[in-house]
Design a protein that fits this description.
The protein folds into two domains: 149 residues, Roll (2,3-Dihydroxybiphenyl 1,2-Dioxygenase, domain 1); 197 residues, 2,3-Dihydroxybiphenyl 1,2-Dioxygenase, domain 1, CATH 3.10.180. The chain contains ten helices and 17 strands. It has a nine-stranded mixed β-sheet with strand order 6-7-8-5-1-4-3-2-9. Strands 11-12-13-10-14-17-16-15 form an eight-stranded mixed β-sheet, with helices on both faces. The chain is 25% helix and 37% strand. Bound molecules: fe (ii) ion. The site of fe (ii) ion has 6 residues, from strand 10 and strand 14.
Length: 362
């Protein structure tokens, strides 16, 4: 179909609003293997907020903390805790993208404007998506600096963990809102419904969820949207919505080239991952057939495997990366499969529910 009304090129960066960006930067460098590349704060003349830019492969994170209670990030953190504020898109023309997005029904957040410094300018605008999350729209004019205007180069090399780029970013929305937001990505961004999962695919004894995966035609940007489905107990999506104070980003999946190497490194770095019961591995070979990796090595690290018609994938999920049980990460390697690990949902959600019960939230 080739429908890309916003002329979206890729995810430019993901911005987190956090209580302590300096410590968060340390966590993503030493835990996930990101390198710091740029900085904006008091020393650069920015007095209202401080931001660190972290990069690994093609994945860019911006960690921003407010410097005073009047900055909008202060209220955001009070309400949500640390979380994703912005999934920023690199577009061909920010003015046109903003005009088309708002004409197609998106709520404007920031009208188009120049952001400039001595390295040149970009055009910048933003639209709202679910919850308090926004999509910045960024297009380049003549900018040649380290990240975006206002930032200075501030390199601190991390120990690269083999992460290549963002694979998908999942949003949790309130009961009854999934269709609305799927329509939003279809109407505003021209995305297509790629896969849907319902409560028959994703349910355990206690809880269920429904999910629609929205994707652009190139499949370079994939946005699954989850909503809770009624279950016997509080679902993991309900726990998120309660803890985050509404809709927001649930997890970011990071694509890697060698799951065993990346997960091994992150585990040694102290990143805690969810574990499924050992019985999962007793039946793994029967379920997914032959794979290149040793089942023992996969079992040791707690990696999950799923296969579909096109191939297989390796995946693992971190524990939430803040104290509120909200945002977490997935580390995924694709060997042909373009799916999301449907065969793992049951085992995985049962292990999430064990954690939920330990938190007193089931
Ligand atoms: Fe995922």
């Amino acid at each position: 179909m080739g429908d890309n009304p916003l002329k979206l090129k890729k995810v430019h960066h993901v911005e987190f609003w956090v209580g302590n960006a300096r410590q968060a930067a340390f966590f993503y460098r030493n835990g996930f293997g990101f390198s710091q590349t740029a900085y904006r704060g008091l020393e650069t003349g920015e007095r209202s907020a401080t931001s660190y830019v972290l990069t690994q492969g093609k994945a860019n994170f911006v960690l921003t903390t407010p410097m005073n209670p009047a900055h909008p990030a202060s209220e955001h953190i009070r309400k949500h805790g640390d979380g994703v504020k912005d999934i920023a898109f690199h577009v061909e023309n920010a003015d046109q993208a903003y005009e088309i997005a708002t004409r197609r029904g998106a709520k404007g957040a920031v009208e188009p404007r120049d952001l400039s410094d001595e390295h040149g300018s970009v055009r910048y605008a933003a639209i709202h998506t679910y919850g308090d999350t926004i999509h910045s729209l960024i297009s380049y004019k003549d900018y040649s600096g380290p990240f975006l205007p206002g930032f200075v180069s501030a390199p601190i090399a991390g120990d690269d963990a083999g992460i290549l780029r963002i694979d998908h970013i999942v949003g949790n929305v309130e009961l009854g809102q999934m269709e609305h937001w799927a329509d939003f990505y279809s109407k505003v961004c021209g995305f297509h419904r790629y896969i849907s999962f319902d409560d028959k695919d994703i349910s355990t004894e206690y809880s269920a969820l429904m999910s629609i995966v929205m994707s652009d035609d190139s499949k370079s940007v994939k946005f699954p949207i989850n909503e809770p489905a009624p279950g016997r107990r509080k679902s993991q999506i309900d726990e998120y919505l309660e803890s985050y104070g509404g809709a927001g980003v649930q997890h970011i999946a990071l694509l890697c080239k060698d799951e065993l190497a990346t997960v091994g490194k992150l585990t040694r770095n102290g990143i805690p991952f969810l574990r499924v019961p050992d019985a999962y591995y007793d039946v793994l070979r029967d379920r997914v057939g032959n794979i290149d990796e040793s089942i023992d090595a996969i079992r040791d690290l707690g990696i999950l495997v799923d296969r579909d018609e096109e191939g297989y994938l390796l995946q693992i999920f971190s524990q939430p990366v803040e104290d509120r049980p909200t945002v977490f990460f997935e580390i995924i390697q694709r060997k042909g499969s373009r799916g999301f690990g449907k065969g793992n949902f049951k085992a995985l959600f049962e292990s999430i529910e064990l954690e939920q019960a330990r938190r007193g939230n089931l």
